[in-house]
Amino acid sequence: MDEFKNTEELIKDLQFIKEAVKKNNSVLKRVPISEGLKQTALITGILIILISAAIILLECYYGSYSAIPGTVKLILYIVIAISAAAAAIKKITDILKVVRKSEQDISIMKLFNELYIRRFWTVVYPFFITITAFIIYFSVSGLARLIIPFTAVMASLVLFNIQPILNVRETAVSCHWLLFSGILSLFAAEKWNPLVILILTFGIGMILIYVSVKASYPKEKSGKLG
Questions:
Q1: How many domains does the chain have?
Q2: Which of these, 222, 216, 225, lies nearest to 167 by C-alpha position?
Q3: Euclidean distance between CA atoms 24 and 79, whole angstroms
Q4: What is the phi/psi pair of residue 122, to 5°?
Q5: Of the candidates 132, 215, 129, which has an alpha carbon nearest to the alpha carbon of residue 171?
Q6: Using one digit for the tens of pLDDT, what is the confidence trace for 78-100?
Q7: Which one, of 80, 76, 86, lies nearest residue 40 by Cα?
Q8: Tens digits of per-residue pLDDT, 126-175?
Q9: What is the pTM assigned to this prediction?
Q10: Helices (H), strands (E): how many in the chain?
Q11: Is 121 part of a structural domain of the chain?
Q12: How is residue 139 annotated by DSSP?
């Protein structure tokens, strides 16, 4: 009888320890949230390429961006705004879906707190200030052509730094792509259309996230089964 009671208490203690460890261990360390990013990354990359290509064609047709009629520009802005909002919503819902496979009771607010913890903002904050300051500087100094290449380089550095925090190692290929294509574009900015640079950096960079995640997880799953 005493043995049974001791065993029961031991099981309860182990369950308590398990729950305590689970609470202290971030969900980001247990769940592959990059799985929830892949579809959004693919859609975002395709949208960047399609919208940029459409604007390039309009520039060729009308002669320059400033010559494009206001109505056409308004439609473009609306399409961009709707696309950005839809991509943001899809990202949240996809990540939530992946996380709920492991944490069924997690709420959007809890997920938000997990994703945007203090450590995350401590890392991102200096980059955000730097990017904003340089975008303003480039804009007022007649160097607007450098905005996209510079942002691509800085975005790669941000991704490199948040990989261990958000546990999204699959973005490594995209990080390297953004870094090297951004540096190359800095030297080619005088000759290349900024929209071509946008396609080269962020358009392809986003698609590479999808490809990396797609290529990564089947291998991991097959390894676990074997």
A1: 1
A2: 216
A3: 42
A4: -60, -40
A5: 215
A6: 999 999 999 888 888 887 787 77
A7: 86
A8: 889 999 999 999 999 999 999 999 999 999 998 888 877 777 777 888 89
A9: 0.77
A10: 10, 0
A11: yes
A12: H
Helix (H, G, I), strand (E, B) or coil at 41: helix
Q: Give the C-alpha separation, 3 to 192, whole Å.
A: 78
The secondary structure of residue 192, as a DSSP letter, is S
With respect to residue 200, please indicate whether it lies within any of the assigned structural domains.
yes
- Expressed as residue numbers, the domain containing 172 is 32-92+107-225
Q: Which two structure tokens, joined as six digits, stand for 207?
A: 């698609």
Residues 6+ apart with CB under 8 A from 103: 27, 31
Q: Which two tokens stand for residue 16?
A: 């308590």
Name the amino acid, one letter, at 82: I
Nearest Cα neighbor of 163 from 226, 129, 120 is 120
Distance CA 117, CA 29 (A): 13
Contact 97, 36 (CB under 8 A): yes
Distances (CA, A) of 106 to 64, 101, 111, 222: 50, 10, 7, 28
Indicate if the alpha-carbon torsion angle 172, 108, 101, 82 is positive or negative. Answer: negative
**Hey, what amino acid is at 158?**
V
CA dist., res. 37 & res. 210, Å (int): 8
* Residue 25 counted as domain residue: no
Per-residue tokens: 132: 């904003």
